[in-house]
Design goal:
- There is one protein chain.
- The chain is mostly helical and about 280 residues long.
- Helices cover about 70% and strands about 0% of the residues.
- The protein is built from 17 helices and two strands.
- The chain has a two-stranded antiparallel ribbon with strand order 1-2.
- Strand 1 (about 215) and strand 2 (about 215-220) form a beta hairpin.
- The longest helix has 26 residues, at about 140-165.
- About 45% of the residues are buried.
């Protein structure tokens, strides 16, 4: 595996407490956001400011625009982005402390060692990365660790979307192809991303016309394309980690924390992100 993929598998579980942990789900409600999806779009999109729905559609990529527009821009009338940002830092830190009570013993040092990865790279063309990078780093070291993990996670995601766009795969088609390969169950993707069966069938037909699918399954060409997309995503995500003094040592430090998050059920498997379990 590449260094970028190695770090994805330890940083992604830290980031995703913001979606799955009860502290974070309740925090979205407490700050004023209504319903799970307004909480998701509002909290993840808050670094962008009170943007219109089109910006969320473009930067999140895989969601049905109708699902986004049921939440955005209304979210900003219930909770300003500044309030959401304070809440998401606090609730993510609370969740991480619950599942990993010893996290305070390593958080400050992990932040010191990980921060150069964020500071070293250009944000051009990486909207969610740049928006998160420019946020003030919290004084709380656990919240700061979560923020850095989130920023690097969005760096990878921005690059992944760029590769999908170059390959002519829209958000729906990317979901259908990922499901056809077996990364994520189709029914879960349809429900979570807001696509109808008719939408799904149309995308399947379009992918079949390109020779990427046959029936509900991916062809060899489809599997090869998906593997190439992942390889190029890893390549685009590599530069931040080249700025680290001791990437292997930092990875060894973060790996037990990622495993603890996973073992406590804060990140389900299989998951809609398509991430495998961190190595044992």
């Amino acid at each position: 595996m590449s260094i970028a993929r190695d770090f994805w598998m330890v940083l992604e579980p830290l980031h995703t407490v913001t979606y799955f942990s009860p502290e974070c789900v309740d925090g979205n409600k407490d700050v004023g956001l209504r319903g799970f999806w307004m909480g998701y779009f509002g909290s993840r999109g808050a670094p962008l400011g009170p943007v219109p729905a089109g910006v969320i559609e473009a930067s999140f990529y895989g969601f049905n625009p109708a699902r986004v527009r049921r939440a955005i821009p209304d979210a900003w009338t219930f909770a300003p982005p500044e309030s959401i940002l304070r809440m998401r830092n606090a609730t993510a830190a609370k969740a991480l402390r619950r599942v990993a009570p010893d996290i305070d013993a390593m958080a400050a040092e992990a932040v010191r060692r990980l921060r150069p990865a964020v500071d070293a790279v250009d944000g051009a063309g990486r909207v969610l990365f740049a928006a998160n990078r420019d946020l003030p780093l919290p004084d709380d070291p656990v919240a700061a660790l979560w923020q850095l993990a989130t920023t690097l996670r969005e760096h990878r995601g921005d690059g992944h979307i760029a590769v999908l766009a170059v390959e002519g795969l829209n958000g729906l088609e990317a979901n259908v192809l990922a499901s056809a390969i077996g990364n994520v169950p189709a029914e879960e993707l349809k429900q979570s991303r807001g696509w109808s069966q008719e939408d799904w069938d149309e995308a399947t037909t379009a992918l079949a016309a390109r020779g990427l699918m046959d029936g509900d399954g991916a062809t060899d060409a489809g599997r090869a394309l998906r593997a190439d997309i992942e390889h190029r995503t890893d390549a685009l995500a590599t530069p931040p980690y080249q700025a680290l003094d001791d990437p292997d040592g930092l990875h060894r430090t973060l790996l037990p924390l990622a495993r603890t998050v996973v073992e406590n059920g804060e990140m389900p498997f299989p998951n809609l992100i398509g991430m495998p379990r961190p190595p044992t």
